[in-house]
Amino acid sequence: MTRRGMPRQMVNDDAEAGSFRVHRGAFVDEEVLQRERSEIFDRCWLYAMHESELAKPGDYLARKVGGKPLMFVRDRAGVLRGFFNACPHRGMTLCREKSGTARNFSCFYHGWTFDLQGQLVALPDSAGYAGGADPVGKGLKPVPRMEIYRGLVFINFDAGACSLEAYLGNAKEYIDLMLDFGGDEVDIAPGQQRYSIRSNWKLLVENSIDVYHAHSTHNRYFSRFLPDMGLPARTWLNVSDQAPGRAIALDNGHAVAETLVRSGPLLKTAANELAEVRQRLVEKFGEERAARIADYGRNLLIFPNLLFISTWRTIRTIYPVAPGYMEVDAWALLPRSESAHLKKLRMDNFISFLGPAGFGTPDDVSGLESCQRGFFEGADSLWSDISRGMHRDPVAADELQMRAFWRRWQTLLDEAPAPTTYGDARLDPVADDCSHGPECVEGVDRA
Asked: How would you class 429 by CB atoms within 10 Å of its CB: exposed for 0-12, middle for 13-18, buried for 19 or more?
């Protein structure tokens, strides 16, 4: 391989040698991003919203999913519908507010009006069109696929994709553990976090399921903030090979890192209420499942870009805008039946660590942007190492969960044309030196 060469397979997976490397062209190349858009974001199931965000008929929201503007509405019969947020007449953005309640949608440009089912109901100067006001073929374009799992609404731009149930596979068990934490159905708390990071989207995917970085990157939180609350730092800083927990590779590139929760701000400020919640979980699910729900923290990735972070009861989506620029959205999930006081404490816990003003997110943003600068400037170092734990049964602080993501990523991109550039340098064709293809699957949990 030449110094600036980029291999056909950017994941070099050598199980025998215990080596797993990712070529840094995957983080900076525009052609790679175009392949990701066509082979991943246009074909995989993507989280769009939660049913609770549209509680009653007429409620709507506009949201960009997979880089495409969409609108979601609950019609008069209570059916949830999703459409492309573009008037079929001239393409004008139809739903221009982020959310609200409406009886119909009228286009700002020429006044075409659509009902909550997406049908054209008013056409100015209908006599000027062949067929007059006939609405056939003039309605809003629905998203090709929309399916729901436990209130989580997913869309797919590929009409021929497998079902959401099949796509989630054995990750459903871990979604259930996340959603059952209050013993009741959950709602999205009002509002959301929105921010951007000047780095590649896959770096935040890695970071979101990476336990390894916690005590060094977030030392300020663990060694200063928690002690100020009367919590011993050592219970958090012991993120080591012996820390209770495990890394798990699931179906279809999904993965999870889980750790035993021994301490934390919420366990201190809401100890009695959380003990009552745990007892209700025991009564509903039994001691064994209640322990799995209440006593462990999990960072769960649903491939390609959805994260559940149970310690802070949040869900996060990550979308690329450019090879070195991403947009992030995050929402808090709160049990429907919990007291207002406990919900407030959960929200305080969420925003104290995650988000642009939290203790944790600014650390991550700084680190990821620094990585991205190194990729652009450090051309002599062409590979990133993600090998930790390959020679043993993976613990939570290992990198199996990241390898699960990258193996699926490579499998999907194998179906697209090979890239011909690295950054802004056009390449001559080079041979692939990876001796192990994406079929090398390590540690998939089929339980």
From this structure: exposed
CATH classification of the domain holding 88: 2.102.10.10
Place of tokens 């090398």: 440
Residue 270 lies inside a defined structural domain of this protein: yes
Q: Distance (Å, rounded) from C-alpha 396 to C-alpha 384?
A: 20
Instruction: Enumerate residue ranges in the chain where pLDDT < 70.
Output: 1-8, 133, 219, 228-229, 231-244, 262-263, 377-380, 416-447
Same domain, 294 and 438: yes
Token pair for 295: 């006593």
Could you tell me if 299 and 307 are in contact, meaning their C-beta atoms sit under 8 angstroms apart? yes
Q: How many domains does the chain have?
A: 2
What gap in Å lies between CA 167 and CA 175, rounded to an integer?
Answer: 13
Question: What is the Cα–Cα distance from 300 to 173, expressed in whole angstroms?
Answer: 11
- Asked, for residue 164, whether it belongs to a domain, the answer is no
Measured in whole angstroms, the distance separating CA 309 from the mean position of its chain's CA atoms is: 10
Q: Which of 295, 222, 249 is nearest to 402 (CA)?
A: 249
Inside any domain, residue 161: no
Domain residue limits at 54: 46-156
362: preceding bond cis by omega (within 30 degrees): no
Q: What tokens were used for 376?
A: 């652009």
Q: How far apart are CA 436 and CA 3, in angstroms?
A: 21
Please report, for the domain that includes residue 286, its CATH number: 3.90.380.10
408 close to 252: Cβ distance less than 8 angstroms: yes
Q: Report pLDDT for 433.
A: 35
What CA–CA distances, in Å, run from 296 to 273, 291, 336?
17, 8, 21
DSSP state of 132: T
Whether residue 351 sits in one domain with residue 214: yes
- In contact, 401 and 249? CB cutoff 8 Å: yes
